[in-house]
Design a protein that fits this description.
Blueprint lengths: L28 E11 L5 E12 L2 E5 L10 E8 L2 E8 L4 E5 L1 H7 L5 H6 L10 E8 L2 E10 L2 E8 L4 E9 L2 E12 L14 E4 L10 H9 L2
Parallel strand pairs: 6-12
Antiparallel strand pairs: 1-2, 1-11, 2-3, 3-4, 4-5, 5-6, 7-8, 8-9, 9-10, 10-11
Length: 225
């Protein structure tokens, strides 16, 4: 089964704010985030990973290729065509790509909400929370929201000009999950390069079962069924 990880966020660091005044949600941007997961115990455990978020009008990708403290070496790509959304899972070390069309995603129960894909959370989520503060984040007007949804304590700092969260923190039981915005740029000024994946072998998800003789495809297929 695939895992479409559309994350939540926490602390703010540096970013390129001046270049984004008045930006709309379709303007090509690239941002650096860090996911943190803290398990409260006698010896608290912290796991973290940085990843890049590339967004344009009909394409969003999360890239783990140059992340520090990297736990995986992959890229996740969503593309919107008319009313359908497709997904590509890129495995950089294996130089393989598994493609999922809209029907595949429906059969797996993994059809994403495009607003959530573009904005990392569904903006409607804010309607379920209470606005607790107005503040400036990286030179932008932002609002802080707090509340509890399905037993999870949730805090969101939302940057309207970017249509992205600057911070989201989830607390449930002995676990805190958060994602931190570290930097953001117009794509034409990005300090990162996209991975060159044009030469990678590509397989439709529906055809994975027909390639069990190939150990790489068989291994990837076992992870995604």
């Amino acid at each position: 089964m695939i895992f479409i990880s559309l994350c939540f966020i926490m602390t703010i660091a540096t970013a390129n704010a001046a270049a984004f005044n008045g930006v709309d949600a379709d303007k090509p941007i690239v941002a650096l985030y860090e996911t943190r997961q803290i398990k409260i115990a006698l010896q608290p455990q912290l796991n973290k990973q940085q990843w890049q978020f590339w967004r344009s009008k009909n394409r969003v990708e999360k890239s783990y290729q140059e992340a520090k403290n990297m736990h995986k070496n992959e890229i996740e790509i969503w593309e919107k065509n008319a009313q359908d959304i497709s997904f590509s899972h890129v495995f950089l070390e294996q130089q393989r790509i598994i493609e999922y069309n809209a029907g595949d995603l429906r059969s797996l129960g993994q059809v994403p909400n495009w607003d959530r894909v573009q904005h990392l959370i569904s903006p409607e989520l804010l309607n379920q929370l209470t606005k607790t503060a107005s503040l400036k984040v990286l030179g932008y007007e932002a609002s802080q929201y707090s509340g509890q949804i399905q037993g999870v304590d949730l805090t969101v700092i939302w940057i309207d000009d970017l249509q992205l969260p600057a911070m989201i923190r989830q607390i449930k039981s002995n676990m805190t999950y958060s994602v931190h915005l570290l930097a953001i740029y117009p794509q034409e000024k990005s300090p990162w390069k996209r991975a060159e994946i044009e030469h990678f072998l590509t397989m439709d998800f529906a055809d994975l079962g027909d390639n069990e003789a190939d150990p790489i495809w068989a291994s990837l297929g076992n992870k995604h069924h």
